[in-house]
User: Which sequence fits this backbone?
């Protein structure tokens, strides 16, 4: 059986422990610490030449349930962060020299983002709006020159030339996912949330789910940005989801795709979706037969495709879920707690999904709001799905997990 090594700033996923011979791989976690580097969750990232550019997100953990305390400005990440995991160094830069619109979006949380070549595109996000002295979802798409920005931050240079921003109401989304199939962008799910969060439903905010897969092309010559909007898919029953995992896929026919796994909330009950939605270049398909029990909220995730067996593997690391394993027994908790579960969802050659709990767990209630940052010197497809069959060594280091919420207990929201 093949082994895979994954590294993380919070956890180094190392040499797998070879157990059941039917499993395609195993995962091993090993901690890694960079002195002085603080916590962060729900951020965007890009990478270049072994260094990461970290943008936005929250410095605090789970949002408070009191409206006056939730998503406060003190918890905004209002710095750009560059991390070199190899040398275990990091650098920071204030964003105060940028325009107010850029500052506000780039210090928001739950932006959608995707890196294409040298440019990291971030859109939407929920944060503080100075002009109205309230919180809102921003309607911007910002292009960031990742190599130039990293170089400027490391060398204490000027970052201003490397940020460009346009406004478009279509991009007023938070909690969705931005992915690509071939050359087309897919903005999947999410919602527009304006005002102050209030878990009791009091009228301090308005919230509208997109219920959509919004497709568009970005035309970017390095100076100007224009958008070509394409026909969207709308489905209030199945696309009304946010804070979920959307993972690039290689489908059984060899084509690129995306699968949206779980997310919140179902239209008629405040519980996660258990079904999934798979998107190809022309349409989408809802899978109501497969039920995902583990890893319902956004967490670090890893995609691998084995061409020999035509199997697409998706690995999820911790986070929040309605179900968890206790001494080999699956437990349902409708409070939807933080979990330690690492699970794999595999699509076989016939397109059938199945879920498998891995033999290792996160060492604590970790993973929610974290990101997997891949090592792209490993063989991979254009959509950054790893080519599992090309991993010839017993152990392969495939990437890092950074950030996320560290919860002291499984259920803490009302404590």
Assistant:
């Amino acid at each position: 059986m093949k082994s895979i090594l994954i590294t993380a700033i919070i956890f180094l996923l190392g040499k797998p422990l070879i157990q059941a011979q039917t499993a395609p791989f195993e995962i091993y976690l090993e901690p890694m610490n960079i002195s002085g580097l603080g916590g962060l969750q729900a951020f965007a990232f890009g990478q270049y030449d072994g260094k990461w550019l970290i943008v936005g997100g929250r410095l605090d953990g789970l949002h408070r349930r009191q409206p006056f305390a939730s998503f406060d400005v003190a918890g905004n990440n209002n710095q750009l962060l560059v991390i070199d995991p190899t040398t275990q160094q990091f650098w920071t830069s204030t964003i105060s020299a940028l325009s107010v619109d850029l500052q506000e979006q780039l210090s928001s949380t739950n932006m959608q983002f995707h890196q294409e070549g040298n440019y990291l595109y971030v859109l939407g996000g929920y944060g503080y709006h100075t002009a109205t002295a309230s919180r809102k979802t921003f309607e911007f798409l910002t292009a960031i020159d990742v190599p130039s920005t990293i170089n400027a931050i490391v060398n204490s240079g000027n970052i201003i030339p490397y940020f460009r921003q346009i406004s478009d109401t279509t991009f007023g989304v938070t909690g969705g996912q931005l992915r690509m199939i071939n050359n087309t962008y897919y903005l999947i799910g999410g919602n527009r949330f304006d005002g102050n969060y209030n878990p009791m439903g009091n009228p301090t905010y308005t919230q509208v789910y997109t219920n959509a897969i919004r497709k568009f092309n970005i035309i970017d010559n390095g100076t100007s940005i224009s958008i070509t909007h394409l026909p969207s898919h709308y489905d209030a029953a199945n696309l009304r989801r946010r804070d979920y995992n959307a993972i690039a896929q290689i489908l059984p026919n060899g084509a690129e795709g995306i699968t949206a796994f779980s997310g919140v909330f179902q239209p008629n009950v405040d519980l996660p979706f258990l079904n999934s939605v798979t998107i190809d270049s022309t349409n989408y398909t809802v899978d109501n037969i497969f039920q995902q029990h583990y890893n319902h909220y956004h967490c670090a995730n890893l995609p691998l495709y084995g061409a020999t067996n035509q199997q697409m593997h998706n690995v999820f690391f911790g986070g929040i879920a309605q179900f968890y394993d206790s001494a080999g027994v699956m437990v349902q908790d409708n409070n939807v707690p933080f979990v330690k579960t690492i699970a794999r969802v595999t699509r076989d050659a016939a397109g059938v999904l199945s879920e498998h709990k891995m033999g290792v767990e996160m060492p604590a209630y970790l993973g929610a709001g974290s990101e997997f940052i891949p090592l792209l010197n490993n063989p991979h497809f254009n959509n950054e799905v790893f080519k599992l069959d090309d991993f010839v060594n017993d152990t392969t280091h495939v990437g890092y997990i950074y950030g996320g919420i560290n919860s002291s207990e499984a259920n803490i929201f009302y404590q």
